[in-house]
Design goal:
It is built from two helices and no strands. By secondary structure, the protein is mainly α. The longest helix is centred in the middle third of the chain and has 134 residues, at 14-147.
Amino acid sequence: MNSTFLLDAQGVQWGDFLFYLVTFLLLIAAIKHFAWDSIAGMMDKRAEKIADDIDSAERNRIKAAELAEQREAALKDSHIEASQIVDRAKKNGEEQKATILASANSEATALKERARKDIEQERQDALEGVKNDVAELSIEIASKVIQKELNASGHETLVDSYIEGLGKHNETR
């Protein structure tokens, strides 16, 4: 046996070492030839996918931020629009109130004016009636005076009948 290849337990066994080294190199060469390109391709695809996922996540984050800003702007616009609607409704209410009050005031003024005219007309009619009554009574008295000669007692009787006639005319009205 070769004493050079066999060393004692403390030394290196060069034959085994050389065998393992050659086997290792052959294994690496076989892996490089058959599997390395596919493993490197898989690793490249995986790195590319990870990079795409990161880019996609960034784009989605930016989109989400834009959507949040749009929603915030829409919410702010809706608050402004709601405030404007309420303001318009208040303004319309005030305008209607003013219109109704003006209409009611003009109607009240017209009613007062009509009532005043009606009262004035009634007053004029009453005065005309009194004038006519006085004129009739005056004519009646004058005709009675002409028909009979007045003395103190006749005069008294004539005034009493005149007063009595006035009372009867007022009762009939």
